[in-house]
Amino acid sequence: MALPESAPRAVEATAPPQPARPLTPVDHAWLRMDRPTNLMMINGVLGIDGTPDRARLREVVEQRILVLPRFRQRIVRRGGRPFWEDDPEFDLGNHLHWMKLSAPGGDAELGELVSSLVSEPLDPRRPLWSFHLIEGHLGGTVLYARVHHCIGDGVGLMFVLLSLVDLVADPHAGDVQNPFTSMLRERSPALLEEACQVAEQVMPEGMRLLMASAEAFASTSGWLKALASVAALGRLVAILPDPKTVYRGPLQVPKRVAWTDPVAVEDVKQIGKALGGTINDVLLTAVSGAMGRYLEKRGDRRHARLNFRAAMPVNLRAIDKMADMGNEFGLVFLSLPVGIRDPVERLEVLRKRAYALRKSGEPLVVYWLLKMMGILPRWFHSLIVAVFGAKATAVMTNMPGPKQQLYLAGRPIHDLFFWVPQSGTVGLGFAICSYNGRIRVGVGTDAGLVPDPEKIVEEFHAEIDEMRRRAEGSSGS
Q1: How many CB atoms lie within 10 A of CB 226?
Q2: Cross-strand partners of 133
Q3: Distance between CA 206 and CA 184 in Å, rounded?
Q4: C-alpha closest to that of 163 among 13, 14, 60, 47
Q5: Which helix (H) or strand (E) holds 256?
Q6: What phi and psi values does residue 174 have, to the nearest 5 degrees?
Q7: Using CA atoms, how far apart are residues 123 and 129, in angstroms rounded to an integer?
Q8: How far apart are CA 287 and CA 464, in angstroms?
Q9: CB 433 within 8 A of CB 439
Q10: Whose C-alpha in 4, 199, 229, 444 is 20 to 30 A from the C-alpha of 173?
Q11: Can you list the alpha helix ranges (DSSP code H) found in 120-221?
């Protein structure tokens, strides 16, 4: 990514100007990972009932997104170092786009459009984000967002989402204030505490997951962290590259996206209760089974001992920094038993493997490596990306989202799902997201490796149906 040199030009801004600040080493590492064949963008969709008023939507974005410096700042280099700097020619029109979906306006047309946009880089001369309002999707509208990973991780961007939307249909009735907007605008401890309390009500599962992972590492003593990290580093270095399958190979620029039909959270919970696993265990089991089924349909060998790994984010952000921008997470490399055909057996194996990684030092090791990748020369960065890219076939993330109906510019939001970026030579990503009692999985692929991710989606639903049948049989026995 070519970055502009700093050019001091003064223009009037609608938000207080910010001093130029260097990127953190971890954010710089994610910026460096950008390649034409693997763009480091988090892509998400909000499905909206009807069509929002354009003027009102623009006002919402101005008041709730542009108060965040990162969304008004571009990246420039000074003396070879990257800095966040206010864009002297910032224009919201360069970031907020209006589009009309081609007829008949279904999921197939939306998938084609998003696949083309996912493959396009953001303009490095401007702040690294864009919103596309796509009208005409199934009688409603889609807000499709692209945000570069160097701006923030999933935790920070979830707070940005909660700031953008409303918890009630008319926020002006009764003078209802969005606590996330207030907190992001003023950054006081009292407002952060209020926002976190509301977040625990709006997305309790998500907050429990984020807080548990961060507190687990914060509560571990220094020498235990060091010991666990040394062991984890040894394990990461020692593990062999993933086996060659249709999911691995030279990457191309074009990408493909697909997403599952909604699955009820309560259904997945009941499956897990009957088969002895969590919601996450059930979903990982279904995704692993879907990948195995797809391999067989493509004529790839699937034997009982076939395993490959998924790189999975683990939050390391403390509760008092939940709303900060930037990246504060590590990764674990979970071995997926894709060769096991029986879903109950596969779930039990996955459950044990996930439990073993829960308290490992892998997230801290990866986080420290990311810091080093952002500081040391590019050859070291490229070496680490190549080494660890060979040890994973997919990126997989799970973000439990809001459990209630949200609104954007006065219009109800009926859907929320996203796609996770992949780095290095990884060409497959799964993003699990829940919203308002339903779960969707966004599947992103390299078009040269997997040109038909909708086939993986079909196999995912076949796996869920099979586990539901097994759960019902278990309950009835």
Answers
A1: 13
A2: 98, 143
A3: 19
A4: 60
A5: strand 255-259
A6: 75, 15
A7: 9
A8: 9
A9: yes
A10: 199
A11: 154-164, 179-186, 189-202, 204-218
List the Cα angle 363/364/369 in 5-degree steps. 100
* Cα distance between residue 389 and residue 358, in whole Å: 21
Give the residue among 160, 102, 99, 107 at the shortest CA–CA distance from 129.
160
Domain 21-476 has CATH 1.25.10.10: no
Residues 334-344 have pLDDT tens digits of 999 999 999 99
Answer whether 295's CB lies under 8 Å from 307's CB: no
From residue 456, how far is each of 260, 342, 445 by CA, in Å?
Answer: 9, 17, 10
Q: Would you state the structure tokens that stand for residue 206, as one six-digit string? A: 């998500």
Q: With the C-alpha atoms ordered 398, 296, 457, 104, is the resulting torsion angle positive or negative?
A: positive
CB 250 within 8 A of CB 36: no
DSSP alpha helices (H): ranges in 87-165?
A: 107-118, 154-164
Which among 339, 236, 360, 354 has a CA at the least distance from the CA of 289? 339
Low pLDDT (below 70) residues in the chain:
1-15, 171-177, 212-231, 322-323, 475-477
Question: Both tokens of residue 458?
Answer: 């079909």
| The two three-digit tokens of residue 124, written as one number | 């490095």
Question: How do the domains of the chain map onto residue ranges?
Answer: 21-476
170-212 pLDDT, tens digit per residue, is 766 544 567 777 777 777 778 778 878 888 888 888 777 777 6
Burial of 6 (0-12, 13-18, 19+ CB in 10 A): middle
Q: Closest Cα partner for 75 from 67, 87, 83?
A: 83
- Cα–Cα distance measured from residue 118 to residue 10, given in angstroms and rounded to the nearest whole number: 33
Site of tokens 């590590």: 330
Q: Which residue has the tokens 């796609």?
A: 419
Q: Write down the residue that tokens 């509560």 correspond to.
A: 219
Nearest C-alpha neighbor of 166 from the set 154, 155, 179, 156 = 179
pTM for the structure as a whole: 0.91
Residue 432 tokens read as 């699990």
Can you tell me the distance from the alpha carbon of 149 to that of 279, in angstroms, rounded to the nearest whole number? 27
- Burial of residue 81 (CB within 10 Å: 0-12, 13-18, 19+) is exposed
